[in-house]
Amino acid sequence: MASEPAAVLIVEDSLSLGSIYRGYLRNEPCVVTHVPDGASAMARIESDPPDALLLDLQLPDMDGMDILRHVHDRRMPIAVVIITGHGSVDKAVDAMRYGAFDFVEKPVASERIIVTVRNAIEKVRMRSFVDRLADDFRRESYHGFLGSSLPMQAVYRIIDSAAPSKATVFITGESGSGKEVCAEAIHHASDRRDKPFVALNCAAIPRDLMESEIFGHIKGAFTGAVRDRTGAAKQADGGTLFLDEIAEMDLDLQTKLLRFIQTGSFQPVGASQLERVDVRFVCATNRDPLAEVAAGRFREDLFYRLHVIPIHLPALREREGDILELASSFLARYAHEEGKRLAGFDADVEAIFLAYAWPGNVRQLQNVIQNVVVLYDGERVTRAMLPPPLDDIDPSVPPRTAAPPSDTHQRRRASDDAAIRPLKDIEREAIEQAIAYYNDNIPQAAAALGVSPSTIYRKKQTWGNAAR
Ligand SMILES: Nc1ncnc2c1ncn2[C@@H]1O[C@H](COP(=O)(O)OP(=O)(O)OP(=O)(O)O)[C@@H](O)[C@H]1O
Ligand SMILES: [Mg+2]
């Protein structure tokens, strides 16, 4: 799978054993190095991490187990094969707990070493291949969503895993952050996609009509019910029922909804028979649902019934990378629709977009762009075209959120043509900053950067020792 030969490090205090093991691996496609003590092993692991480590537990200067723990704690992509004298079960158990790949007792047969090293390398390579795929697999759009920022990647992944199930999804997020887009995405990613998606806005329908909207009614059930009417529950049979603004639902109706969710059956208004349907529930609110529960406006038992898979949509201001991506895409769309030439933003417009807090999120950004496209023409969007309050933003004033200063600095530089630098330099700088920030703790830095630790180790390897 990989073109480069694998690296194997043997840590063994006996020089003769070390060279015997090397001999065993002579015909294997790997580069083998031997060090005789713990200190040199640690140095080597830092400077030039191998794919596989053959580790003797009894070293003159340290316990081999400490080396294993070091590799394990830092989640380094190294397969460790423990080699030990008289094997004690305790040691073996410990070694496995710390993620050792294999535990081999002396004396070791050549065949045993060859096979275990081959398997160890295979495993490490496979894992880093999978990690790399995951990193490369950043989606820029997903079932109606645009945006490749990390917070959105997390949303896409949750939808991927939740879509095939029937479990209820509870979507939260500020106004305009894409809750309805999310509900539709869940439907389209599920195998209910060919069946109806029925959305019901609990805030928009008068309370006394709501029950009939959901469950339907029979002719004569109430004044004005001149014929039978099918409700949303029945219409959504086999598909998805989206209860939008769920926190606005009347308490009485919440009780009926709870029963429907628990049993899958309901009674149309005025009917004596129960009807049974198969629907997947998705609901959304831009309120804090727990605060609504605490205030007595939202039934606690209903909340826990619905809150099976929570999805929180990040606010646009938390989705740094997405702002300009979305702005460009909306500009292209509206310019095309309106037959305008506008095809880009002036640098100060971009800086304003990045500095603004976007309380109305994606919807607000969409409206701003549409407003500009309808009212103006030209090659590029200039600051003078922006509607209030954006025309009044000073992008040099520290922005909206508590973003760290270095971040602001970088954002401003990015819009300055002269300061544009190769992506790999920026990437390296970001990784090194994160490593320094987390005091050399690579797993933490990796988590903060949203990549796997092995990605960082791999990058560091390609930069050589200078990165440390
Ligand atoms: N990630 C996105 N990519 C593209 N368009 C988006 C995205 N998120 C939202 N939109 C668009 O923004 C608008 C608002 O989205 P949506 O109606 O889903 O928001 P909402 O969270 O339901 O808002 P509200 O709380 O006001 O009901 C829609 O026109 C939608 O198409
Ligand atoms: Mg909505």
Coarse morphology: extended
Rg measurement, Å: 30 Å
Which molecules are bound besides the chains?
adenosine-5'-triphosphate, magnesium ion
Instruction: Output the structural class.
Output: alpha/beta
Strand content: 5-15%
Query: Low-confidence stretches at least 5 residues in length (pLDDT < 50)?
Result: 401-416
Task: Give the strand tally.
Answer: 14
Strand arrangement, major sheet: 2-1-3-4-5
**Main sheet overview:** 5 strands, parallel
Separate helix tally: 19
Give the helix proportion (percent range): 40-55%
What key attributes describe this structure?
single chain, 468 residues, alpha/beta, 5-stranded parallel sheet, 46% helix, binds adenosine-5'-triphosphate, binds magnesium ion
Architecture overview:
The chain is 46% helix and 13% strand. With 468 residues, it is α/β, with parallel strands linked by helices. The chain has a 5-stranded parallel beta sheet, sandwiched between helices. The chain has a 5-stranded parallel beta sheet with strand order 9-10-13-8-14. The chain has a two-stranded antiparallel ribbon with strand order 6-7. Helix 17 packs across helix 18 and helix 18 crosses helix 19. The two termini are 29 Å apart. Bound molecules: adenosine-5'-triphosphate (ATP) and magnesium ion. The site of magnesium ion has 3 residues, from helix 7.
Q: Brief overview, please?
A:
Helix 3 links the parallel strand 3 (52-56) and strand 4 (79-84). The protein has helices spanning 15-24, 38-47, 64-73, 89-97, 110-136, 150-162, 179-189, 207-215, 232-235, 251-263, 289-294, 300-306, 320-338, 347-355, 361-375, 405-414, 423-437, 442-449, 453-463, and strands spanning 6-11, 30-35, 52-56, 79-84, 102-105, 141-142, 145-146, 169-172, 197-201, 240-244, 265-266, 275-276, 280-285, 309-312. It has 468 residues and is an alpha/beta fold.
